[in-house]
Design goal:
Chain A is built from 10 helices and 10 strands. Chain A is α/β, with parallel strands linked by helices. By secondary structure, chain B is mainly alpha-helical. In chain B, strand 1 and strand 2 form a beta hairpin. The chains are: A alpha/beta (259), B mainly alpha (293).
């Protein structure tokens, strides 16, 4: 059984069917791509999976459990964590605090422990603190941990957002256009980084991306969405040579040009 | 000199009340981005709980104080759960929340008039009656309790917000509610906790002004309004700003009453509000909001 499976997922906004009967399947340890032209419904799929929207129809299975109807924080707790297309860090918090917000799910102590500084509190705090520092070291942000997150350059904000997501120890990480706005060299680093993340955290990754060199390089399989519908599925090679995909991206191949 | 010291002390005492209540406006505004006018009714509620506990002689004053603070916290939480949350979940505009909060205030005040009593009550004597007199400057016991109690609560709140994970989650929810939820933070619970703290602090203020003056159904009205002015003067959304605004209004009000005319006492808070908004619209410690384009 797949780690994550979406069956006949559909959402309608008024008359618009943003996601239409989509089936996806991701096995443990895979890196799977989700591509498609602008407005194809990719981010909407992420919003459905993370509980921001409730689907009109369809099921979302995570570890054989239907997670439709759960709240975003409950889904995060189960181990599905995402990043955003337009970075959504807690802007006025420091780099370190951003990562620490995630500590929430893993802290067994209560408020009373915090006020009384019990041994349990001290121990957990120490562990969370060290975990946060380890994560920041891994993404190369340790020396900037006390800076306000909005003051970081764009590329580093992206990394911090991934670090914040990783702090929840996700078993399924959803990355929404992690390479957006990056130059080719940064893209190469990002590919390395994502592979590294999978190896280190033993996580499964579903990634939305427009940079074809990134996605073709990193994914084992991919899905193509167009106008909310699933257009194709396969390995990067298959997708690259799929006539329907080329058509969706480049427009219809016209046999005879009139006028 | 003696006169000045006395006025400064009075300002500190009444400023503590404003600061305690202003923090509640600021905290709730932080997480929900609307002005909760029902907050002033929590102050009245708290005063009545303590008053009736004392009048019925079932418990000593510290217990009445604690009981009132906890019940007021729960009451504030319930106003959010029953009045504001259903509106939020249906996606109502924030203006509707604001109007609802005014409705809650009217409801609470009038419920007290109808079901409890419309009269002014004098709080039973619980503290030693003789004020401490230090070379002519008088420190009434209730003021000492007010200043000490509010300092303790404020320090506890600062610790809570800045040093605990729940405090961090309140900050995260205030900055980006959706992202906070996706980071596993239980937003509903965080909002409830915020209301609880706001209620707890308002109750302390309500009891002590009740002891200082008298307890009546519209006790929260003017104090609530001035505290709201204090939170805006300090910069709404900022906890230190609420303290600053509260004490500032307290000092200016008593100095104005002492040296200019006590007729203008109540106007001073609002004059200050207008002046601050003219020159620094985001409040003294508020962070300017930048329009995203």
């Amino acid at each position: 059984m797949a780690l994550f499976e979406v069956k006949k997922l559909t959402i309608k906004f008024g008359g618009l069917t943003a996601v239409d009967n989509v089936d996806l399947k991701v096995d443990k340890g895979e890196i799977v791509g989700l591509i498609g032209p602008n407005g194809a419904g990719k981010t909407t799929v992420f919003n459905l999976v993370t509980g921001v929207y409730t689907p009109t129809a369809g099921q979302i299975f995570f570890r054989d459990r239907n997670i439709v109807g759960l709240k975003p924080n409950q889904i995060a707790k189960l181990g599905i964590v995402r990043t955003f297309q337009n970075i959504r860090l807690f802007k006025q918090l420091t780099v370190y605090e951003n990562v620490r917000t995630a500590g929430h799910l893993r802290v067994p102590y209560g408020l009373a422990d915090a006020f009384l500084h019990t041994a349990r509190y001290e121990e957990c705090e120490k562990k969370c603190h060290e975990d946060a520092l380890d994560l920041l070291a891994m993404v190369g942000l340790l020396d900037r941990k006390d800076e306000v997150s909005s003051s970081l350059p764009y590329g580093l904000q992206r990394r911090l957002e991934i670090a914040r997501a990783l702090a929840l120890r996700p078993s399924l990480l959803l990355l929404d256009e992690p390479a957006a706005g990056m130059n080719p060299q940064e893209c190469v680093q990002l590919i390395e980084f994502i592979r590294n993340v999978r190896a280190t955290f033993d996580t499964t990754i579903l990634i939305i991306e427009h940079h074809m060199d990134v996605i073709m390089n990193i994914c084992e399989r991919m899905y193509v969405l167009n106008f909310g519908k699933l257009l194709a599925e396969g390995t990067p090679e298959e997708i690259q040579n799929d006539a329907r995909v080329i058509e969706a991206y480049l427009g219809e191949a016209q046999a005879d040009v009139e006028d | 000199m003696r006169e000045l010291l006395q006025q400064l002390w009075n300002g500190l005492a009444i400023g503590s009340v404003y600061a305690l209540v202003a923090v509640g406006y600021t905290l709730v505004f932080g997480v929900l981005k609307f002005i909760n006018f029902a907050h002033s009714s929590i102050l009245t509620f708290g005063a009545y709980v303590a008053l009736y506990t004392m009048l019925s002689k079932v418990a000593p004053f510290p217990v009445a104080l604690g009981l009132s603070m906890v019940l007021s916290g729960v009451f504030a939480m319930q106003t959010e759960l029953r009045a504001f949350r259903p509106l939020r979940e249906k996606g109502a505009p924030r203006l509707n929340l604001l109007i609802t909060s005014i409705g809650v205030t009217l409801l609470v005040e009038n419920a007290i008039v109808v079901f409890v009593s419309p009269d002014f009550h004098v709080f039973p004597k619980v503290l030693p009656g003789t004020p401490i007199n230090l070379s002519g400057v008088v420190f009434p016991p209730v003021d000492l309790l007010l200043v000490a109690g509010s300092s303790i609560l404020m320090l506890a709140l600062s610790y809570f917000v800045n040093r605990t994970l729940t405090g961090l989650s309140i900050k995260a929810v205030a900055l980006d509610r959706d992202a906070a939820a996706l980071m596993g933070i239980n937003v509903g619970r965080t909002i409830s906790i915020t209301f609880f703290i706001a209620g707890l602090m308002a109750s302390m203020a309500g009891i002590l002004v009740g002891m200082k003056f008298s307890v009546n159904p519209s006790l929260g009205g003017l104090f609530g309004l001035k505290s709201f002015a204090a939170s805006v003067v300090g910069g709404i959304g900022s906890v230190p700003g609420a303290y600053l605004g509260g004490y500032l209004i307290g000092f200016l009000e008593t100095l104005g009453a002492g040296y200019v005319s006590s007729n203008y006492k109540d106007a001073i808070a609002f004059v200050l509000l207008v002046l601050v908004l003219l020159f620094k619209p985001s409040g003294l410690l508020g962070k300017g909001t930048q329009e995203k384009v």
